[in-house]
Amino acid sequence: MFSAIFNKYTTSTLGMIATTVPLVYFIRKHLNTEDDEDMPIHEVLFFSEEGIVCRDHFIKDSEKKACSLKNCSFYNLSRMLHFLNSADTTLDVCMYLLTVKDLGAAVLRAQKRGVKVRVIADEDMANGSGSQILSFHENGLLVKCRQKSTTLMHHKFVVIDNRIVMTGSLNWTMQAICGNWDNLIITSEYMIVRQFSAEFERLWNRL
């Protein structure tokens, strides 16, 4: 008897969870709700060749909104910009390749509103075509580069206000956002954020 009742309510509860989670995702994605600073942040963004069809979202004003694709590249970029624009005190960027103008502009805006911005890059990539690092230099951002070596500064992470980390396989290029198979994790998990903050400080002091 107890087993039957337990199974009944367990099935009912799981059903509610199964329908609620997609609903929350839909609301956040399509209604563009803001994040509550007191709520933990745990997001995973996936990028794939499906994002190629989303390129028009970046060009046509009438289509500048997320589409129905699960891995819509415009939605993914908008989430990245949202967190960069939320920086209030510090923004530490450690990025192998950075050519996306929208992301570069978000970093520059942070500096203009008084955020302490530091950038670590790889020297070869920093001097490459389309690199936003050159613009950072011109605008007086604090930038350090790993000198040419047999190894690379291949990190791809950002620490925001020592409270949020964005990290994954994703380089900040349109090829990565709209074509490559890549991922990005965004989290406010304290132990993870603390370790990335410490690693950034270690690298910054070493360069």
Automatic annotation (TrEMBL):
<dbReference type="GO" id="GO:0016891">
    <property type="term" value="F:RNA endonuclease activity producing 5'-phosphomonoesters, hydrolytic mechanism"/>
</dbReference>
<keyword id="KW-0442">Lipid degradation</keyword>
<dbReference type="GO" id="GO:0034587">
    <property type="term" value="P:piRNA processing"/>
</dbReference>
<comment type="similarity">
    <text>Belongs to the phospholipase D family. MitoPLD/Zucchini subfamily.</text>
</comment>
<keyword id="KW-0443">Lipid metabolism</keyword>
<dbReference type="InterPro" id="IPR001736">
    <property type="entry name" value="PLipase_D/transphosphatidylase"/>
</dbReference>
<protein>
    <recommendedName>
        <fullName>Mitochondrial cardiolipin hydrolase</fullName>
    </recommendedName>
</protein>
<feature type="domain" description="PLD phosphodiesterase">
    <location>
        <begin position="149"/>
        <end position="176"/>
    </location>
</feature>
<dbReference type="InterPro" id="IPR025202">
    <property type="entry name" value="PLD-like_dom"/>
</dbReference>
<dbReference type="InterPro" id="IPR051406">
    <property type="entry name" value="PLD_domain"/>
</dbReference>
<dbReference type="GO" id="GO:0005739">
    <property type="term" value="C:mitochondrion"/>
</dbReference>
<dbReference type="GO" id="GO:0016042">
    <property type="term" value="P:lipid catabolic process"/>
</dbReference>
<keyword id="KW-0378">Hydrolase</keyword>
<dbReference type="Pfam" id="PF13091">
    <property type="entry name" value="PLDc_2"/>
</dbReference>
